Amino acid sequence: MFLKKNIFILFLAFFSLHLYSQKDSTKVKNVKVQGKLFVQEGVYKPLAPAKAAFYSAVFPGLGQIYNKKYWKAPIVWAALAVPAYYYQINNNEYKRFRTAFKLREAGLKDEFILEDGSTLVSDETLERAQKQLRENRDLSLLSGIIIYVLQIVEASVNAHLLQFNTDDNLSLKPTFIMDPMQFEAPKVGLTFKYNF
Asked: Where is the secretion signal located (predicted)?
């Protein structure tokens, strides 16, 4: 097993010397440039993530539009519309059962008491319904707040990631470096050199 690992490491080391991610396009010979040459000053905009987060905080989805990720804005709006819809439904039902419970406590007729005096919903059911609807309403509010914060974070992180250099000139060239001080005691190491 130890021999297999050593052979595999040596095999990998030998063949990795010729491993390149792409050819270097900057070493071009005999090319003449005619006209003006435009050089991009810099891609890094330090305030872009802060602007994206601010726009998303002011109006959800606006940070995604600022990042030119237009397809994400409707997803943000739909994600925020769902908890808002359920919050409204649960709040209306909570108020309905709360009003019925208060009327019944005061000895008045509520919407769950029929004309003949029989009740459709008992007092215990009214209390349990209020508790469950209040929990559902609060959960809808909490999930809406979490989605709101997450869309702000997503816009900011996306603005950060858009500034990374991902052009074709990035390359990876692994090399072996020998230790000249201790040549008699061989060491094996691997160094990665990133050229930008």
From this structure: 1-21
Distance (Å, whole) CA 186 – CA 129? 76
Which CA distances in Å does 175 have to 12, 13, 22, 82, 189? Answer: 12, 9, 16, 54, 9
Q: How many residues does the chain have?
A: 196
Tokens 């005096």 map to which residue? 117
String of DSSP letters for 22-59: S--SS---S----S-------S--TTHHHHHHHHHHHS
Are the beta carbons of 112 and 120 closer than 8 angstroms?
yes
- The whole-angstrom separation of Cα 63 and Cα 65 is 5
Q: How far is it, in rounded angstroms, from Cα 22 to Cα 127?
A: 69
* Torsional class of 70: left (φ above 0), alpha (ψ -120 to 50), beta (otherwise): alpha
Q: Cα-flanking dihedrals φ and ψ of residue 113, to 5°?
A: -105, 125
- pTM metric for this prediction: 0.61
pLDDT digits (tens, 9 = 90+) for 130-144: 999 999 999 999 999
| Pairwise CA distance, residues 37 & 74, whole Å | 40
